[in-house]
Amino acid sequence: MVGNILFRCILGPKLFRTYRDPDRHGSTRGSRQGLQYQPNGLERHADTILGLASVLWSFSYYTSPLIFLYLYRKGYLITSKLVPMTQYAGTFLLVLAGVACLRGLGRWTNPEYLQFVAILEETKKNNSLENKRKLSYYNFDFGSWPVDFRWDEVSSGKGQKYSKAGVSLLKPERKHRGATDSVLSTIKKLPCQIIGYIFAHTFGRRMLYPGSVALLQRAVHPMLLQGQARLHEEYQGKRAKLLACDGNEIDSVFVDRRMASERGRKLVVCCEGNAGFYEVGCMSTPLEAGYSVLGWNHPGFAGSTGVPFPQNEANAIDVVMQYALEHLGFNIQDIIVYAWSIGGFTATWAAMSYPEIHALILDASFDDLVPLALKVMPESWRGLVTRTVREYMNLNNAEQLCKYQGPVLLIRRVKDEVITTTGPEDIMSNRGNDLLLRLLQYRYPKVMSEEGVRAVREWLEATSAIEEAAVYSSYEVDDDWCISVFQSYQSEHGSSFPWSVGDDMTSEGRRQLALFLARKYLHNFDSTHCTPLPAQEFQMPWTL
Fold this sequence. Notes:
Elements: H1 2-11, E1 15-18, H2 22-25, E2 35-36, H3 41-62, H4 64-73, H5 79-108, H6 111-125, H7 129-135, E3 138-140, E4 149-150, H8 179-208, H9 214-235, E5 238-243, E6 249-255, E7 267-271, H10 284-288, E8 292-296, H11 310-327, E9 335-340, H12 344-353, E10 359-363, H13 369-376, H14 382-392, H15 397-401, E11 408-413, H16 431-443, H17 450-460, H18 465-474, H19 479-493, H20 507-521, E12 522-525
Helix pairs in contact: 1-5, 3-5, 6-7, 8-14, 11-12, 13-14, 17-20
C-alpha cells in the first residue's frame, strides 16, 4: 500500500494551486481565493533540477541542426566518440530518474499532495460529477486531467461528417492536366514538395504559431497560472478537457453568466491569436461585457496537445462547438463566435460549418495567409512559399467567410503592424481591407461594381473618425434610403446571399449603398495589433 502511494507520488502531476470549496467555506468571493501549493524543500529542489533539465532538452531540440553540424565538423560523429557520449547520456538520465524519485519522496511526506493524488486516482476510477467537482479545486498539470467531453458524444445530429483526418476543409482548386503531364509535373515538383514539407513542419509552423514553442510557453507559464486562478476565483470558470476526433486533447474554460443577466444568455466562443492563450487573451473582452464565455487553447498551446495545423485547428473548434451545444446546453442561435488575429481561421470555419450561429466577430483578422507569408520571406522564394502555404497552412479566411450567411462584424486596427504587407503607416496594406471587400463583393456583387469598390477603398483610406465622416458625407449617403432599399429587396427575394440588389441602379446609388455597407460591416479601432479590445468596442454586427 505504502509503495503504491509512493509510486503515484513519483509519477503524479505537478500541483500548482488549491482552491477553497465554497460548499464548505461559504460562497462569498473571498472564500473562493486559492492558495499557491507549497512543496517542501525536497520536492522544491528536485523540481528545480528537473525543470532545468527540461529547459536544456527544449533548447537542444530547437538547436539540434546546429549541434549536429558542430559535432560533425569536430569529428565526434564516429563510433569511438559516440560510445562514451552515450554512456554519459545514460548516466545523466539515471541521475534524473533518481531526482524524480526524490521528488516523489518529498510529495509523499506532504499531506496536501497526498490528499490531491488520492482524489485524482479516485476520479480516474470513477469519473462522477462529485469526484470531478472535488478535483476542480486543484490546479495541476493538465495532461493528467480526465477527459470531460468527447467529439463522438453527439446525439442531436448536429455533428460534422468526419473523414480519416477529421472534419472537412475547403481545398484549393487544382489545375487539371492529362495523365502524362500530371506524372511528369509530379516528378518535377517532388523536390520542392519535400522542401515545402520540411519547411512547414519545422520552423514554418513555429513562425506561424509561436505560442506552440515550448520555450515560450515556459516563459509565460507564471502568467498562465495567474490567468487560470483569476478565471476560477473571480468568474467561477470551469475548466474542461475536450477530446477532438484526431485524438488531440483541447484545454478549455467556461464562464457561465446565464443566471446573471439577459446578455449572459448568449455564449461567446473565443478563438485566440497565434501567441494567445485563453488565460490572458481576447476572452477578457466579452467577459467584461457580461457574456457567458467559452475559451480554448490551440492544439499544442498550454494544456492542449497536438500541433496547430489547419486540420487540427478545425478539429479542435469542432469539438469546442459540440461541447457548447451538447454538454453546456446552449442553443446554436445563442452562440457568438469571436476571434482575434489568426483565430479568424477557426472562427470562419465554425461559422461556415455551423451557419445558424447568432453572429461572427473578427478582430484584427486577414483574408488569406499567402500575402502575409510573402511579406516576411525572400522574393526569390515566392513560388515555394505560396505552394507550401496552400498545401500545409492554407488559412483561407475570406473563402470560408463567404460560405457564412449570418451577421458579421469586422474590427480593423488602424495602427496594425502585423497584418499589413508594408507597414502600419500604410493602412491600405491592412489585409482586413481585403477581407471586407471579398465579403461585400460576394454578398452584394451588383453594388460592389467598379464604382462601388472605388468608393469603399476611398473610405478605407481614412485613418480617423473625422476623415471617415468626411468621405461618407462627400457621397451624400442617405442611411434611411439605403435601409429601405435593402429591406424592400429582402422582403421580396429573401435573405440568402448573394443579393442582386443594385442591378438596375445608378452609379450614385450603388456608391451610396457600398459605403453604407462598408460602415456597417467594418468598425475601426485606433490601436495596434496586440492591444486588448475594450468591452465597449465589443458590439453585435448590424442586421436589417
